[in-house]
Design a protein that fits this description.
The chain is α/β, with parallel strands linked by helices and 205 residues long. The protein contains seven helices and ten strands.
């Protein structure tokens, strides 16, 4: 299996241009659209400017925490391929998918084994399942082994304090897509040298 990658929390044009033009650019690039608590949050005007940069081989992902109608209307014409949704019930996700014609990454935040089972509630509307920690912007870990034996007929994305010096081969055994954000930062900012290491490690898996 070829492992895919997502670099999340991109908030400046220099980093975005570097990622997009990389020989081994990630399949997904995420932008924090409506969660100001995150240091990676991008306000609407800046987001519109960033997304003028041609995505080339990558797909753009809007990361949304229980979005209201206003933000959904504000971004509906932006070139997002996926909406990554946190804290949304199954009915709301289905309505968003149908109205805005976007593919959906449903985020399941995990603290224990019971949380994993929640994925079954979203099977009608989800294109990709993301298993993440409860930490959101804090890059907290969770026990990735909890999803090891899942038998899901959709792609699985994994996040939660993933670092570039982790043995990425271990993630390949349990997921289809590695989602990394804080692990590519130094002093809270995306670090080009770490991005370079990560993308090359993904290529070599």
């Amino acid at each position: 299996m070829i492992i895919k990658s997502k670099i999340c929390g991109v908030s400046d044009s220099k980093t975005l241009n570097y990622i997009i033009n990389h020989t081994y650019s990630p399949q997904f690039i995420g932008f924090i659209v409506n969660y100001p608590k995150s240091k990676r949050y991008v306000n609407l005007e800046k987001l519109k400017e960033l997304l003028k940069i041609e995505k080339k081989k990558s797909l753009y992902v809007a990361v949304l925490v229980n979005p209201n109608k206003k933000i959904l209307e504000d971004i509906k014409d932006l070139p997002f391929d996926y909406y990554q949704l946190y804290d949304c019930d199954p009915v709301k996700i289905k309505l968003i998918k149908e109205k805005y014609k976007k593919k959906i990454i449903t985020a399941i935040t995990v603290e224990n084994a019971n949380d994993i089972e929640k994925y079954k509630l979203y099977s009608d509307s989800t294109d990709i399942y993301l298993f993440d920690s409860k930490g959101y912007e804090k890059s907290m870990p969770f026990d990735h082994g909890l999803i090891k034996n899942l038998n899901i007929n959709k792609e699985i994305m994994i996040a939660g304090n993933i670092q570039i010096d982790d043995d990425l081969e271990n993630y390949k055994k349990i997921a289809d897509i590695i989602d990394i954000s804080g692990g590519l930062e130094t002093a809270g900012l995306k670090d080009i040298s770490k991005i370079e290491i990560f993308l090359n490690k993904i290529k070599n898996l």
